[in-house]
């Protein structure tokens, strides 16, 4: 027997927090009959005298003074039309009347602000998919974060400070939302919207970013949290975000110094500040991103007593490229210092770290610091590159333009902004394949080679 959505919500309300709602069913004559209800200040399944009274009560007791209308067919648990954010009783009643004429069953529930910094999504089996600024239907769109349940629960608890109530059997599919402010009939942080048993088999998590949640927090913050959730050594990091309360993760490094790192929505090699020592995050944001569109957070990260520093990335055919040098690596990453020959024990440790990460995430890129004993992850990104030997970005060009790395990364950024299809870049001067110079070239996707491969140059 297939349960109606309102029956499912009524059952869920016995053990879970649901949004305040009133269910209605068509009577076959174009009118509505109330079924179940949960409205703050009223007993469970209180019977209202009319649809108007029920809608008025919902609007009155909704924290945002808005309601949604969901429609569905009783033979299918999936929704039909969904109308979001209605504020007027008459407007709601008009929607109910229109949909009831189609013999659809209806649920009116409180609107809960999807732009409050929380997330909505779906948990099914061992996968959780979610996004900010959207309803659970975000899973039907590109850009959702897709994580195994165990990792998702760690990440979400880290960011929001509470453990999401998402413990369901493997054969369940549940739509949920998480909120910094308590919401719903029971005034909790997790709200359950829909629940159904499914016969879906194993669903693999995509484990890729940038996604809408990584953009919400900042790419560096998200990548480091993933590394930490996977059990990798990550320096203790406090994230001061634009849209989330500050949160902290990672491990103590034994150093009392810190780094200040900006965390943009997506990787922007060398564009924004990374500096040793604490800087005023508010002044930094006002200076480097006054419109608030690019930098999502500022990280205060414990320093590591760096014996060696560098980066590792996946090249073609499964090859792992590891580069670095003695001491701290910020100048090396900017292309201002050259890579050095690393001791075998450092190379072996970084290679082992790469293997541990890639076994879970696939091809990755990360910046690392070795303190003599431990490889610490200070940035993590997913995805392979096509970099190999002196070819930074493969491809041919009808016109090669020479760029001397001594000019600096900002001049390269300006050059790349002026290139057109058919042009490529020849890099003169020594630079690491894992440096931000190389990262910027890969991001731009124009053919790029080091000058050791002879090409006609403009």
From TrEMBL:
Name the segments for region: Disordered.
252-273
Q: What is this protein called?
A: Uncharacterized protein
Recorded source organism is Rhizobium sullae
Species classification:
Bacteria, Pseudomonadati, Pseudomonadota, Alphaproteobacteria, Hyphomicrobiales
